[in-house]
Amino acid sequence: MAKPSKAVMAFMEKYGVESDEIWEVHGSTWCVKHKALERIAAEVGIVWEKPELKVCDMAAGITAILVGGKLGDHVEYSFGEASPKNNKNSYPLAMAEKRAKDRVILKLLAVHGDIYSEEEADDFKQQPRQNPHVTRVSDIHDEISDDIPTVAATKMRVKDSRPIYAALVKEMQRIQDERELFEWGQAKAEEIHALSGEWPQHFKGEYTKHKQSIMNGKAA
Fold first, then answer.
1. In this model, does residue 59 exceed pLDDT 70?
2. I need a labelling partner for 187 at 20 to 30 A (CA). Which of 9, 65, 150, 200 fits?
3. Is the dihedral of CA 3, 6, 8, 9 positive or negative?
């Protein structure tokens, strides 16, 4: 899986989207779960207008619904469509409403086009894992340091990563011995790899910089 774009990472951090609620499909498209979008809509206070049913042919399984939503002074509208060509379940009206609402939410959050709803297409659906909350070693793209072993770790929420990251950096910076730093990194590996979003990469930079400062101090 490729590293999320800055827009995707910012979206995850701002709205507390967990790593198992968003994923990549087709190499460059990022999809988010419908229930995550519903939660965000409630948290930010999106106000919905009454949906308008534009097309309804239940015998043919074809529906189209217009939905409007408001966030502050920002208003957006979008259609949701369902037909046998893009919907395989038995509830086309519900699917059309989900698609319309998800599109409106993404528009109001200014990420439509960068992120899509899982309801947009069946092939956007997330592939199940035995435990989707656990990051596998194969999912870890960049090593933090040769000092810190790459381990599978239960990923925390992105918004929870910030205070843990700050505590780790503060604790690390108290260490002024290279051997002690190595042992600390070994002991903290799982906690470090549990960081979500861009925090592991931020930590990598801080660790490298601190280790270099210790080595430079010895040389002096």
1. yes
2. 9
3. positive
Contact 105, 46 (CB under 8 A): yes
The 10 Å Cβ neighbour count of residue 83 is 16
180 φ, ψ (degrees, to nearest 5): -65, -40
pLDDT tens column, 108-150: 999 988 899 988 866 566 555 444 444 443 344 456 677 787 7
Ordered alpha helix ranges (H), the chain: 6-15, 34-44, 92-108, 158-173, 178-187, 189-193, 199-219
**CB burial readout 113-151, b (16+ within 10 A) else e:** ebbbbbbbbeebeeeeeeeeeebeeeeeeeebbebbeee
Supply the pTM of this predicted model: 0.59
Rounded distance, CA 141 to CA 58, Å?
47
Phi-psi region of 153 (alpha: psi -120 to 50; beta: other; left: phi over 0): beta
